[in-house]
Amino acid sequence: MNHLTESQLQELKHMLVERKQELERHFEVNDEENSLLGESERMSTGELSAVDNHPADLGTETFERGRDLAINESLSEELDQVNAALQRMEDGTYGICQKSGEEIPFERLQAIPFTEYTIENTPEREISNDRPVEEEVMTLPPKGAGEVRQQHVGRFDDADAWETVEEYGTSNTPAMAAKRDVKDYNENM
User: Fold this and answer.
1) CB neighbours (10 Å) of residue 116?
2) Which of 37, 79, 80, 113 is deepest in the core (most CB within 10 A)?
């Protein structure tokens, strides 16, 4: 810790304590909402039934709930890191890279006061390649699915139906008038 001056340490400690208070306030303010996250969706939404008039409403609730859980998990991890950094200050190991033993530059500590590593020794963040279990049972859509597939297969959707029918004419088009004239002519012969 000798590479940091007393004023630098005080500045960093103030930043850490302030962030710790913000995070603790988040969990206190959201304590009631956070307790609802452990309940069933029906209980937390106040709905009498999980089946609603709009199925998308339940999807929105599920998304919001998942997002809130992820945010809380992330903020909880950050609070743990802040507490660990404050403990390192007490122990006299703050500002020293946990991997290499090198001094962490003050500028980096200002940017991320709870960091344990120099830039060069920061562990790689693992990005999960886990996919939803539903993908194991899903079948892939047909090749060229979508509008192009509709045109190539020779089928049409609702949007194309009118154009296709209109080719044969309507009661108001000249084509239908000509067909009526031919029909009348053939009947009169």
Assistant:
1) 20
2) 113
Tokens at 185, concatenated: 């002519």
Tens-digit pLDDT profile for residues 97-117: 999 999 999 999 999 999 999
User: Quick check: 1 and 56 in contact, CB under 8 A?
Assistant: no
Helix (H, G, I), strand (E, B) or coil at 156: coil
60: Cβ contacts below 8 Å, ≥ 6 apart: none
For the stretch 124-138, pLDDT in tens is: 878 778 887 877 777
CA–CA gap between residue 84 and residue 16 (Å, rounded): 10
Rounded Cα gap, residues 127 and 154, in angstroms: 43
* CA angle (18 as vertex; 14, 24 as ends), nearest 5: 145
Give the DSSP H or E segment for 165: helix 158-166
The CATH code that applies to domain 6-121 is 1.20.120.910
CA-based radius of gyration for the chain: 33
List the chain domain ranges.
6-121, 147-188
Contacts of 18 (CB under 8 A, 6+ apart): none
